[in-house]
Amino acid sequence: MPQVSVTINGRQFRMACEDGEEARVTHLAEDLDGRIVQLRARFGEIGDMRLTVMAALALADELSEVKEKLQRLEPELAKLQEASVVSADRAQATQAAVIAALNAAAERIESLARRLNQTLVDASVPMG
Asked: Rounded to two decimals, what is the model's pTM?
């Protein structure tokens, strides 16, 4: 299992992760470290543990907001997916109708061409 070394709040940590997740773990650690730096700039030296807890609470708050937003958007997404299916069905029906109309028009044109040719042959009209 791969490991990655990250720095959070001035301390280095060795973290195990899944193959290919090294960059993601590094990015997450950098994000957390950046939040701690911002909190330290805002509140001063209030203790490492307190800064870390505040950063964790800020992340938990963001996660909670995203979950709530996702829950609000899920019904809308379901409606959009349903509309997409209905639209695809209509498009398929329209395409079938257009194909049928073109085939019918082609058959009429061929029928008219046959009758016209037959009329010319029966009338023995000299060509040219």
From this structure: 0.59
In degrees, to the nearest 5, what angle opens at C-alpha 16 toward C-alphas 10 and 22? 80
Q: What residue has token string 């030296």?
A: 45
Q: Fill in the amino acid letter for 121.
A: V
Q: Which two tokens stand for residue 94?
A: 């329209």
Task: Break the chain into its structural domains and give their ranges.
Answer: 3-123
Q: In this structure, what token pair is assigned to residue 64? A: 């909670």
Can you tell me the distance from the alpha carbon of 92 to that of 96, in angstroms, rounded to the nearest whole number? Answer: 6
Which runs of consecutive H residues, i.e. helices, occur in the chain?
22-43, 48-123
Q: What phi and psi, each to the nearest 5 degrees, are found at residue 67?
A: -60, -45
Query: 47-87 pLDDT, tens per residue?
Result: 999 999 999 999 999 999 999 999 999 999 999 999 999 99
